[in-house]
Design goal:
With about 260 residues, the protein is of the alpha/beta class. The chain has one domain: P-loop containing nucleotide triphosphate hydrolases (Rossmann fold, 3-Layer(aba) Sandwich), CATH 3.40.50. About 30% of the residues lie in helices and about 25% in strands. The protein is built from eight helices and eleven strands. The strands form three sheets. It has a six-stranded mixed sheet, with helices on both faces. Strand 8 and strand 9 form a beta hairpin. Helix 3 crosses helix 4 and helix 4 runs parallel beside helix 5. The longest helix has 16 residues. It is globular, with a radius of gyration of 19 Å. The protein starts with a strand and ends in an 8-residue tail after the last strand. About 35% of the residues are buried. The model has no long low-confidence stretch (mean pLDDT about 90).
């Protein structure tokens, strides 16, 4: 086993002939690291995720996967009133033989995942009655129960309030640092990538990208090129610790 979860080289894909969403993309995701993918709307973040999970096949280049993965979509919706326990138990589907039912090991894995994310007290609650932040954690638990060693998250903090964004970001970092899971996530928020990602990819254009250490690629100049908005990197002290954040500059909206 190598230290690589994903490796892609000269990766290319387009939905229409001659119109590329991305082309010539190169990157490497190491086992146990957090890898963030940033880009404006329509730049191809979701397309890249679909290539990684195998929902799309590359039209050019190579993609090597050396990991078992679980996909966590944005704010999962469910029209049937499954309980939280049942939703997480579904994560064991790939471990259950055809025409069989989940066994004691599957149920224990489900309980372990719920306990890991402090969700045991919600086990019998209907999933569709939970808040957005609770639902996102339940889908995290389902991914954990699957036994996968890589989680792929599509904008995991989308539509969540600031408190729940912090909860999700802490779990991303904790699952990587303490459980050794590889985590790949897309985001519009450079602050989130800066807080938790070891490596980041900035999707600047169909043929143009930056990929490397988050601290190296997340510069004011690169983020300006990415979003078309001037960004300032601010350093300050909080609780006796040095911290950094990125702040967008909107001329005409700033107050004196």
């Amino acid at each position: 086993m190598t230290d690589t979860a994903f490796m892609f080289d000269n990766l290319g894909f387009g939905y229409r002939s001659g119109q590329w969403v991305l082309r010539g993309y190169r990157g490497k995701v190491k086992r146990g690291e957090v890898f963030a993918i940033l880009g404006p709307n329509g730049r191809g973040k979701t397309t890249l995720l679909k290539l990684l999970i195998g929902a799309l096949n590359p039209q050019e280049g190579t993609l090597r996967k050396e990991t078992q993965l679980a996909f966590v979509p944005q704010l999962f919706q469910c029209s049937f009133p499954y309980t939280v326990f049942d939703m997480v138990l579904m994560g064991r589907a790939n471990r259950v033989r055809w025409f069989s039912t989940p066994g004691a090991k599957d149920e224990q894995s489900t309980l372990n995942a719920l306990e890991r994310l402090d969700l045991l007290d919600l086990a019998e609650r209907p999933f569709d009655e939970l808040s957005g932040g609770q639902r996102q954690l339940v889908i995290f638990a389902r991914a954990l129960a699957s036994g996968a060693d890589t989680l792929i998250l599509d904008e995991p903090t989308a539509a969540l309030d600031m408190k729940n964004q912090g909860v999700i970001l802490r779990w991303i970092r904790q699952l990587s640092r303490e459980d050794g899971l590889t985590v790949i996530f897309t985001t519009h928020n450079p602050q989130h990538a800066h807080l938790v990602a070891d490596t980041s990819m900035l999707m600047l254009g169909e043929h143009d990208f930056l990929c490397g250490s988050t601290d190296e690629v997340m510069t004011e100049e690169a983020l300006h090129a990415l979003y078309g908005v001037e960004m300032k990197r601010l350093r300050f002290e909080y609780g006796g610790m040095g911290m950094e954040t990125f702040l967008p500059m909107y001329p005409g909206l700033c107050q004196a």
